[in-house]
Design a protein that fits this description.
Layout lengths: L6 E3 L5 H11 L3 E8 L3 E7 L6 E6 L10 E7 L2 H10 L8 E4 L2 E4 L10 E6 L5 E6 L5
Parallel strand pairs: 1-4, 5-9
Antiparallel strand pairs: 2-3, 3-4, 6-7, 6-8, 8-9
Pfam families: Glyoxalase
Protein name: Catechol 2,3-dioxygenase-like lactoylglutathione lyase family enzyme
Organism: Kribbella pratensis
Length: about 140
């Protein structure tokens, strides 16, 4: 039996502002924007190349906007990913990795999978991590 993660709900305070951030600044595709009155709206967005989407909206979660932390996006070239985010106006961290003494600035010395990261937040403070996997030197 396959168990596939298809959708993650991200709590936001302003759906239109969040939708603009995720589509215009992160380049997520808009799959659905469906509204039923003032108490229910679901906006489904998918990162480029991903099989899993996110949903933002009204009446879709009781979680506090900004409380979602640690969702990972995976890229093959973290330097190119950072450059794209900066170009799109995202306030993104410098690359970092973890060593014997904890979090360290810069790329992982050997660029091995799962060792180099970036981070950023959406307008509500939901925290995202970008992780490098499959980098070809």
């Amino acid at each position: 039996m396959d168990w596939k993660l298809e959708l993650v709900i991200v709590p936001v305070s302003d759906v239109d502002r969040a939708k603009k951030f995720y589509t215009d600044q992160l380049g997520f595709a808009e799959d659905v924007d469906h509204r039923v009155g003032d108490s229910f709206r679901v906006v489904q967005l998918t990162p480029p190349g991903s099989a899993c989407s996110i949903t933002i909206g009204v009446g879709v979660t009781s979680a506090t906007p900004g409380s979602y932390q640690g969702t990972h996006l995976v890229v093959t070239d973290i330097e190119a990913a950072r450059a794209e985010l900066v170009e799109r106006g995202v306030d993104v961290s410098e690359p970092f990795h973890f060593g014997a003494s904890g979090k360290q600035p810069g790329l992982s010395p050997n660029r091995a999978d799962y060792e180099t990261f970036l981070s950023f937040e959406d307008p509500d403070g939901n925290g995202w991590t970008v992780q490098e996997v499959g980098h070809q030197p």
